[in-house]
Design a protein that fits this description.
The protein has helices spanning about 15-20, 35-45, 60-75, 90-100, 120-125, 150-165; strands at about 1-5, 25-30, 50-55, 80-85, 105-110, 130-140, 140-145, 145-150, 170. The chain has about 180 residues and is of the alpha/beta class.
Length: about 180
């Protein structure tokens, strides 16, 4: 069975987690909130295709331990969807290192904020040659001259499309006209 890791998979990426399960993946989900994790597992309808990884990803040692355990239990990770806050400076590197330890082909979909400079981020991330790296930048929506942030449903839908299309950089909503940002 294919194995996916979703970082932030109980919040704005919850529909991505459920979609991956429906696509035949075993999904390991990193989250901090046990209650939201329980709700997501119930919505999935099966505990056999979900591994909850309750951990604060700013704690590098615990994150590394959880990743090692899920890989040992569920097999190599084939796909990572990662929404990681900028203050967790080590988290993405730890994930890349642990997933890459076995040197098999895998994909990383890195979810970025509307303020992110995609080129600068790409330059500063050490991506192994057997990893295909994609960026998904979250923007905002302008409705009737008013702007608003994306909903969780819009974010999940856009990320799912990005996974299907496999574009190097996908944008959900718009990031231009920064002065119109909500």
């Amino acid at each position: 069975m294919k194995h996916a890791l979703v970082v932030g998979g109980t919040g704005m990426l919850s529909e991505v987690s459920l979609w991956l399960i429906s696509q035949g993946y075993h999904v390991s989900i990193i989250a901090r909130n046990a209650e939201r994790m329980d709700k997501l597992v119930k919505r999935a309808g099966t505990k056999h295709h979900v591994t909850p990884l309750l951990v604060d990803y700013t704690d590098g040692k615990k994150l590394q331990e959880k990743l090692k355990n899920t890989i040992s239990k569920n097999g190599e990770i084939d796909l990572v969807v990662a929404w990681i806050h900028s203050y967790a400076t080590e988290a993405l590197s730890i994930i890349i290192d642990e997933v890459s330890n076995r040197k098999h082909r895998w994909q990383l979909f890195h979810i970025l904020s509307s303020r992110s400079n995609t080129e600068t981020i790409r330059e500063h991330i050490a991506i192994p040659h057997f990893c295909t790296y994609y960026q998904v930048q979250l923007g905002f929506i302008i409705d009737d001259s008013c702007s608003r942030w994306l909903t969780n449903e819009e974010i999940s839908s856009g990320v799912i499309e990005a996974i299907k299309k496999k574009e190097n950089v996908a944008t959900i909503g718009q990031v231009e006209l920064r002065e119109k940002r909500p």
